[in-house]
Design goal:
Bound molecules: adenosine-5'-triphosphate, magnesium ion
Strand content: 15-25%
CATH topology of the largest domain: Heat Shock Protein 90
Structural class: alpha+beta
Helix content: 25-40%
CATH superfamily of the largest domain: Histidine kinase-like ATPase, C-terminal domain
Shape: extended
Oligomer: single chain
Number of helices: 27
Distance between the termini: 107 Å
């Protein structure tokens, strides 16, 4: 028997150099850490698409022996006396070598390294002009794309933000002394700042190591260690078992995040996940755990264990994917509490039984013993079909609603223009066909682009009143905001809510104009409607109907007809504004206006007549035109947009607008007139 020794093929060294380096920014960070280790007070990094320089004013290499021991040989163990902050492996410089041809200058020495073409051989010369500190020039093996250069610069700024040396990057100082920033906790071990949202960035003595996802510790934020963390070879992870400093910091972060999250009225998904993990592991007092809103129902609402046990439908439990239409319906019915599948995932369990087990033992709600029913069982007999009905089957009442909704969808389109800056033509094109359908699960549904179906059940009880108009407009907006099919699952993400909010004005306008159109729609389809339905109209609708029919109300003078003076007015005298309800005014004639290319009594005609006489603030012009025509502002605003856009089809280049800041004036385009 003999004892033999493992050896190393030189090629391993090349491999280690290449593979240890993750990114160029990481290699640059190695260089900067070396500068700190050399006692530098400043370090200047320059990076272009072709080359890199790192120059410092540290002690450099002071002798040929140091070069042979520390530069030439990889892995030489460190001596206590070197007093290094970061240096551990005597390998880091290899990362800089792997990205390009290196020239290192220090004292009167110059070392030229080119691992790509010369492998492990390098050139050393010893009688160069004196260089203070140490400076490294690298010409990159691969030219950086502009986006790579920008990305690398950004990464360096992040990685080295708190490095304890004055670091400049392409001439700009980018390092910050953590002592000058505001922190939530400053301990012997670390500066700690906790924030919701994105990840928790951890810095080892000022140099970035990694970001923890915020669900891992239940928080985002920044930790800058003040003592050495034990890191892996690539310096991109913490060796938690060996690192007492990190364990202490982590305990603090965890404890503070939990304290904060327990009190927070609304949690984000990551915070919920972390707390659920802690509840599942019985790390939170049962009394506190019972009040955390960690249980998400099928419609996306979050409730606490105690609310769950108390809820009217808490006796029977089932589970469905979040947003499931049928699940939603079942949940609303109160027969079951329908848990969203994601809740099980959050607690790391696969069955409702295990989830209830956690509620009973870890939230201290032992008396709660719900029945578990599979979703299939629970929805037996419930119909999740969505059927579109042949128009021949539509009732007069349904027809009236279809025509009301269909023709007033332009208000929604206007809402899109208004709220999401959508181009007018696109918004009008985005209108969807309105149809009647049958569904047990939904009030309305859409394929996300071509149609919106309103269910019979919904239309049946919709009143011909302002209230009914508002309900219908709300549903119309809701469906318009779905840009995907919503028959199966029905999830409302942040984008949906934002669109709904931003475009809501369109729904208000739509409700108003539907309400105004009600008498007409009822008359059109009304011969076949019974008296009961007609009686559903509320008082205001009846008034509108009367006006529509008789042009006025009994016992009153018909309102004066609005006129618009000629331009230019010889003597501008204040115009008395008739004090009448907008809807009561019917403009039948507008005095001929020289050069008005539009029909006098049309919206276009009136807008142009007004708008070409003087400069207006847009809203004033719309309000005035609305007063004169009795039309909703939304529809006039759309007409105005057309008038101001000479390229629009229906305008034909007849008009355009001159703008001066907030004011507009409409002008006629002689050349293009049709
Ligand atoms: N800018 C510098 N100024 C002075 N000496 C330097 C400089 N850069 C590197 N050195 C010397 O070269 C040695 C090797 O550097 P290298 O980064 O490869 O290893 P390290 O810093 O010792 O350990 P680690 O692998 O953990 O980074 C260092 O120990 C140091 O003595
Ligand atoms: Mg190093």
């Amino acid at each position: 028997m003999e004892t033999r020794r493992f050896t190393m093929h030189p090629h391993l060294l090349l491999d280690v150099m290449r593979r240890q380096a993750g990114t160029l920014s990481k290699a640059i960070a190695e260089g900067v850490m070396n500068s700190v280790d050399a006692g530098a007070t400043r370090c200047d990094v320059g990076l272009t698409d072709k080359g890199l320089t790192i120059a410092d004013d540290g002690k450099g290499f002071r002798s040929r022996e140091e070069i042979e021991e520390w530069f030439e040989r990889f892995g030489t163990p460190h001596e206590e006396s070197e007093g290094k902050t970061y240096g551990t492996f005597r390998m880091g410089r290899g990362q800089i070598f792997s990205f390009g041809r290196n020239v290192w200058r220090t004292g009167r020495f110059k070392m030229s390294v080119d691992v790509a073409s010369k492998g492990l051989d390098y050139d050393l010369s010893c009688d160069e002009a004196e260089t203070r500190g140490c400076s490294i020039d690298v010409s990159l093996y691969k030219v950086l794309l502009p986006s790579e250069l920008m990305g690398t610069l950004r990464e360096i700024e992040k990685m080295l933000k708190y490095v304890p040396v004055r670091l400049s990057l392409n001439g700009k100082v980018v390092s910050v002394d953590p002592a000058t920033e505001k922190w939530d906790h400053v301990t012997e071990e670390a500066y700690v700042r906790l924030r919701g949202g994105s990840g928790l960035s951890v810095y080892n003595l000022g140099v970035w190591v990694k970001d923890f996802s915020s669900w891992q510790l239940g928080t985002g934020g920044v930790v800058v260690s003040r003592k050495q963390l034990v890191l892996n070879f690539a310096r991109n992870d913490i060796m938690e078992r060996e690192c007492a400093v990190w364990r202490k910091v982590k305990r603090l972060v965890d404890q503070k995040a939990t304290e904060r999250n327990k009190r927070k009225p609304t949690l984000d998904d990551d915070e919920r996940k972390r707390l659920a993990e802690q509840v599942a592991a019985a790390e939170i007092e049962p009394r506190e755990a019972a009040d955390l809103k960690l249980f998400t129902d099928v419609s996306g609402r979050h409730v606490s264990a105690s609310q769950l046990a108390r809820s009217r439908n808490g006796g029977d439990l089932t589970v469905a994917p979040k947003g499931d239409r049928l699940g939603d319906k079942l949940h609303q019915s109160g027969a079951y509490f329908v848990m969203a599948e994601e809740t099980l995932e959050r607690f790391g369990v696969s069955t409702l039984k295990d989830l209830v087990g956690i509620v009973q033992s870890n939230c201290g709600i032992r008396h709660w013993k719900p029945r578990f029913v599979s979703f299939r069982e629970a929805t037996k007999g419930m119909d999740s079909k969505h059927v579109i009905l042949d128009p021949k089957q539509w009732s007069p009442r349904e027809r009236a609603w279809v025509s009301l909704i269909q023709s007033n969808q332009r208000s929604l389109a206007y809402g899109l223009v208004w709220g999401s800056d959508m181009d007018y033509g696109k918004a009008m094109a985005a209108r969807r066909k309105v149809v009647v359908g049958e569904s047990e699960a939904a009030l309305a549904w859409t394929d996300g682009s071509t149609y919106v179906a309103y269910s019979r059940n919904f239309l049946r009880y919709l009143q011909f009143s302002m209230k009914g108009a508002m309900e219908a407009a709300d549903v119309a907006l809701h469906e318009q905001c779905h840009d995907d099919e919503d028959t199966g699952t029905h999830v409302h993400g942040p984008d949906f809510y934002q669109r709904y909010h931003d475009c809501h004005k369109g729904a208000t306008e739509m409700a108003v104009s539907m309400f105004m159109d009600m008498p007409k729609a009822i008359q059109q389809h009304g011969q076949q409607m019974n008296q009961w339905i007609l009686n559903q109209q509320d008082a205001a609708a009846k008034a509108a109907l009367a006006i529509e029919k008789h042009g006025g109300m009994a016992g009153e003078q018909p309102p004066p007809k609005a006129t618009i003076p000629l331009d230019p007015a010889p003597e501008p005298k204040p115009e008395p504004k008739p004090e009448v309800a907008a809807s009561a005014v019917k403009v039948t004639a507008v005095q001929a206006v020289g050069g008005n290319p539009y029909k006098g009594s049309s919206s276009y005609g009136i807008l142009f007549a007004l708008g070409s006489q003087k400069e207006w603030l847009r809203d004033d012009l719309l309000a005035e035109a609305a007063r004169l025509t009795g039309k909703p502002v939304a529809s006039l605003a759309m007409s105005l947009q057309v008038l101001m856009n000479p390229n629009h089809k229906s305008n034909g280049g007849k008009s355009g607008a001159v703008r001066d800041g907030d004011t507009i004036r409409l002008v006629r385009h002689e050349g293009k007139a049709a």
